[in-house]
Amino acid sequence: MLPLIGLGVVLARAFTAALTVYELYSYGSNLYEGQANYRQELDKAKAEIKKIIHDLEKEFNGHLLYASEIAYLEKLRKDDPRNDETRQPRQRGHQGFKKQISERIPFRKVISEVCDKANINSFPQLKKKKGVKVSDLPKARQKILESWAGLILSEIVNEDIGSEFLIARLKQLAASIMFEFVDEILGWKAPIKTEVCFGAKFEDPQLLFPGNPRLKRIGRFDLNPFYPTPYHNQRGSIAADLVIAESRLEPISKTNLFAIVEIKFQGDSIKKEQFSKYDDLLKECKVAKEGKYGKKNNHSGKGIKEGGYLSLFRYPEDIALEGGKGKPNEQTGTKKAGNRGK
């Protein structure tokens, strides 16, 4: 059995390697004008990281007891390196979302690093076109931006293509691609899953193969594999930016959900309706877990108090501290003291 500390080290090393390769190939930075090279660059990156973490895969896929895995996640959550703004929110969303912002979560450092990469990308090829609206573009280009933003065209047609809102949506796509990238490299057994879609009646996420933790994607690979979602035509369905699984060896479901993390880059809106839907989902998770484990116990050896945790991760406000010191830099997302982001 892989020791709990060992699992954390392996995951951190895997993400570090993946992000290094991502930066090397920078396939996300050319999404708009370089889409023809997207698949080729992604394949190159996958081949490169396969070499780097070949031995890590064996470690990571070692057997890990379910109860121990939950205990490990709770330990990471307890040690969450929240900064002062996260502990006592005063910036975006502090009115109405204070609990979700200050919620402890596992893997804050990994999430911060992925968001850093997506933010640095910044999509300069779109920013340089400020003053040009989506409606001014040829229809083919409009459809590309519609897919990347994960919104219907009518929602963005009057947007400046270099607007903060549209750039925020594309940064979110870049982050999702990176999380999915690492999950694939780790044989779809990473504990962090991205773009997890539940149905309108909270049906479990659809899988590519029954019993396999790999989520079903129906979007175009060379545009946005996450849009449309498998439940796209169901009014009321919801797709979480990140879901942390209780057991990484099992598919995400209402009985295998430890935490939901909603990422909001600057320029993206924070809506109560969305979080109310998450609250309803977690209530369903609690009912499902009680049905599976009983009301007084689950695999963690503790009673089920709630269906899972819900976190609002604002970038850059809620990035992890390194060594428990420093404050986040509002411009770059890195802390003022220390070496992250150099």
Question: Can you give keywords for this protein?
Answer:
12 helices; 342 residues; disordered C terminus; 42% helix; 8% strand; four-stranded mixed β-sheet; alpha+beta
Q: Can you walk through the features of this model?
A:
This protein has helices at residues 4-25, 38-52, 54-60, 66-78, 84-87, 98-102, 108-121, 124-127, 139-149, 153-156, 164-185, 272-293; strands at residues 192-198, 238-244, 259-265, 309-315. The chain has 12 helices and 4 strands, in the order αααααααααααβββαβ. By secondary structure, it is of the alpha+beta class. Helix 1 (4-25) packs antiparallel against helix 2 (38-52). Strand 3 (259-265), helix 12 (272-293) and strand 4 form a beta-alpha-beta unit. The protein is globular and about 60 Å long. It has one domain (4-315). Strands 1-2-3-4 form a 4-stranded mixed beta sheet, with helices on both faces. It is 42% helix and 8% strand.
Number of helices: 12
Assembly annotation: single chain
Tell the overall outline.
Answer: globular
Q: What structural class results from the helix and strand content?
A: alpha+beta
> Can you summarize the main beta sheet?
4 strands, mixed
Number of domains: 1
The radius of gyration computed from the alpha-carbon positions, rounded to a whole number of angstroms, is 19 Å
- Which strand-content bin applies to the residues? 5-15%
